[in-house]
Design a protein that fits this description.
Order of helices and strands: HHHEEHEHEHEEHEEHEHEEHE
Number of domains: 2
Shape: globular
CATH architecture of the largest domain: 3-Layer(aba) Sandwich
Oligomer: single chain
Structural class: alpha/beta
Length: about 325
């Protein structure tokens, strides 16, 4: 990379924004709709950017889209650059009496059906207070949120309570109930309404969260996990296959339970609550628009009893983090 890169121009910023969109869309084709330009134009702009920076940023081919080592480093700096630019715009807007810019918000999947989640009300309230801000929501796995916050890919997130970097603060908003389910083609489906012995469940093939740590519930199974998924939809497919049992949020599973496609297994023992929190940096270093959005989140969610971040244990309904 050239050591004497000239000052960035408007063209550079446009090309860097194209690069960022390509990376976050995981390829040129998927970026077309987001950018509203043709694939050939995207290719031309990327070629010009690589020439300008003097490095190869990405690879394309039959194996798919991927970043080079230089591309990964440049993407990390692009995130910081646009975060700084957005922060500047937001603070200048605040000085002038209004808020403008993009606010990137991370959210874990399968929350929209949760009756305790008032995120839609928080968005409406935020839009009334900051109509000039462009909120961008990103669905993120819980294990990815910490890095996304630390790298400034997002400024605030709604996620399960779990250990985080000391720089990130968390406050509980609401809770999510989870239970173990099987699909209609599973051998236990017809017995699911009965209080089957735990020993019978222990023999079943279990699908785990690809990112979760071990819990007391997972330890009840006699064999290692037989399948993994990194989101709730993936777990739902595994459960519906009839070959695996696993945990799902009860509000998310309800659509299949109502259609007799899933049933909970021993909810008297194998259900628990997870604290869902807002995660952010200390308010002293947050942008004003992020602080306002956080205020809206806290305002629309009633105070609930704090739920400890501990692994659930057998024998009673518990609180824990396995999302």
């Amino acid at each position: 990379m050239a050591a004497n890169l000239p000052p960035l121009s408007d063209v550079d910023f446009r090309q860097l924004r194209v690069f960022r969109t390509i990376v976050e869309s995981n390829g040129f084709t998927a970026a077309q709709d987001e950018l509203g330009i043709s694939r050939s134009t995207i290719s031309t702009q990327m070629a010009a950017l690589e020439t300008r920076l003097g490095v190869k940023l990405c690879r394309r081919g039959r194996s798919g889209f991927s970043l080079t080592e230089h591309g990964q480093k440049i993407y990390s700096e692009v995130i910081k650059l646009f975060a700084a630019a957005d922060s500047f715009r937001a603070e200048v807007g605040a000085i002038r009496g209004n808020m403008v810019g993009e606010l990137r918000i991370g959210v874990v999947d399968a929350m929209v059906e949760n009756p305790h989640c008032q995120l839609d009300r928080a968005i409406a309230l935020f839009n009334e207070r900051a109509p000039g801000v462009h909120p961008t929501f990103v669905i993120v796995s819980p294990n990815q949120i910490e890095n996304a916050l630390l790298s400034r890919q997002m400024e605030i997130a709604v996620m399960p309570n779990q250990p985080m970097n000391a720089a990130i603060q968390m406050q509980q908003l609401f809770h999510e109930e989870q239970a173990m389910f099987c699909g209609k083609d599973h051998p236990l489906f017809e017995e699911a309404h009965s209080k089957m012995p735990i020993e019978q469940l222990a023999e079943q093939k279990y699908a785990r969260r690809g990112y979760s740590v071990a819990t007391a519930f997972q330890s009840l199974f006699k064999h290692p996990p037989s399948a993994s998924a990194y989101d709730m939809e993936g777990l739902a497919y595994l459960i519906k296959s009839g070959k695996f049992v696993s945990f799902l949020p009860t509000h998310f599973a309800k659509q299949w339970v109502d259609r007799e496609e899933m049933r909970p297994l021993r909810p008297d023992l194998l259900s628990f609550k997870i604290a869902m929190c807002v995660a952010n940096f200390p308010q002293s270093v947050m942008s004003r628009m992020a602080r306002v959005f956080r205020e809206c989140l806290v305002e629309v969610h009633p105070t609930v009893t704090a739920i400890k971040n501990t692994a659930p244990s057998l024998g009673a309904k518990n609180s824990g983090n396995t999302k």
